[in-house]
Amino acid sequence: MLEESPLMVDVLGEHIHEWFLRNKRVEFAEYRREVTPFELRRYLNTW
Would the pTM count as exceeding 0.70? Predict the structure, then answer.
């Protein structure tokens, strides 16, 4: 995984590696809060 990759730390540098991981975690948390049309149709069959 990217989080545990010494190669990525070497390539990006520690500062950028931490910044990238922090931003991807925020992005993923935002993504998980979205309800998709598929989920609405499947789990809230009101359409």
Answer: no
